[in-house]
Fold this sequence. Notes:
The chain has two helices and four strands.
Amino acid sequence: MKEYCPYCITFIPDGATVCRGCGAEKEISKTTTVTYSGTEALGLSIVVWLILSVLIYAITLFSIDFSTALFIAAAPAIIYGIFMSGHKEQQHKYAWVRYK
Length: 100
Ligand SMILES: [Zn+2]
């Protein structure tokens, strides 16, 4: 990524944090943002609904104990959780600051 100092338009090499031209410093702050779109929120509610349905269905139909039913019902939630974790993104925000 080509970058230039906002103060003196000196070219900043990759990974450099101080401008060679004017001594401005690059201040990096890491922020983790998790964004849920409308489709994802709908998907989440469907998953919750599915878990509850499967849980009740399994208990009534197969007369299995609650912990087994919970384990079976948790499987789609785990899969969805793995899918959702891919939507977490770390952004490296930075600003150039000149003290001198
Ligand atoms: Zn500069």
